[in-house]
From TrEMBL:
Record-given protein name: GTPase
PROSITE patterns named in the record: G_TR_1, G_TR_2
InterPro entries assigned to the protein according to its UniProt record, in alphabetical order: CysN_NoDQ_III, G_TR_CS, GTP-eEF1A_C, P-loop_NTPase, T_Tr_GTP-bd_dom, TRAFAC_GTPase_members, Transl_B-barrel_sf, Transl_elong_EF1A/Init_IF2_C
Keywords noted in UniProt: GTP-binding, Nucleotide-binding
Residues in Tr-type G domain copies: 1-212
Organism this protein belongs to: Geovibrio thiophilus
Amino acid sequence: MKRMNIVITGHVDHGKSTLTGRLLADTGSLPEGKLEAVKAMCAGNSRPFEYAFLLDALADEQKQGITIDSARVFFKSLMREYIIIDAPGHIEFLKNMLSGASRASAAVLIIDAKEGIAENSKRHGLLLSLLGIRQVAVVVNKMDLVNYSRDVFEGICRDYGLFLAELGVQPQHFIPVAAREGVNLISNSVSTPWYTGKSVLEALDGFDDEQSLEDKPFSMSLQDVYKFTENNDERRIFAGTPSSGRISAGDRVDFLPSGKTSVISTVEGFNTEQRFSAGAGEAAGFTLETQVYVKPGEVMVKEGDESIKVSDRFRANIFWLGSRPFETGKEYKLKIGCAKVSGTIEKIEKLIDAQSLEKETDRKGIRRHEAATLLLKTSAPIAFDTFDANEPLGRFVIIDDYNIAGGGIILDALEKSSVKRIGVYSNQEIELNRFIRKHYPHWECRSIEE
């Protein structure tokens, strides 16, 4: 069955956990007896039952070794399986999203019908825009608290729709919901006879499947190279998860940015049947006919494919979370795919205030919860792609003092900065020259005689 990653976001107490818990219950996705057990626990403690408690119960099971992640909850419809990314609070959510641990193909953004559009509602809309998430359903929750008022619902749709339009985001759906009561979650409810659109589950099932990544050119960020010596096993396995396309045994491959070339000998998997190919999203390992020295973070592509960019400069949209400003002139760590590289701000093109959407162009730093379009320069050329062409290789995070402090998406590759030059001062040092040309192709080496 196909699988899709969905992120659920919204201001604190607008009902993310309740909606998630109710979806789990109403789609029959809970472990057997879990719903009844939580209801019994609530009754025993004289507490009213809340569907949000289901997530707390599943988190407790996670601590006991059961394979349900408190940040990633699984449920399924008749069409496909879903992984819901649901984190407890806006800062944690932002870091979860920006870490790239679970790439979201679509989003459900929740707004409390009674409280209305909050500051974080706008901030989350901006973040979704900057991360390039275009499949969005806006859920207006707690409609029971406003007596299922059509006027309240349409007012929020109008105001928030105009705000998102400024960001270039056009939600496919605005859905009136009472998550605790199950109204318009699985199917349409008589409580809102004036609403004729899709339910939440129908909207999710209508989102485009991310499997189209397999139709794109092959690319894989190299996670690591493993060697197993037990029983005289001399294989070197180049491991990673393809971000797009499909590769098979016998295909010739290039590694970027080093330019090394080899041929896929075998396709390996852990505790799997013998396989001869691997595609987007399928963790795999590969052995090569000709051994090459490449570092984790290099991108493997089919020989001759020029769709992946190699440069030390790119334009990006970023969202900053760090307690200290993101400053020009300071060096940070960037993580793109499996590559880690130092980087600095070359130029801030514009800053965007998350609340007012006003733009600034003359500041030298980016403060917490601000967004910007800027030019970044890395300490060495790296392989990447634009987000529109290849989401996994076009999304990155920024690390400051070992903490994820921001992240964003790559808009354009820019021309490389001037090449570095080193002198090779005698022809007797030709071997050093060859070594540098092989392992540092972005340097230009010349001897005195040249």
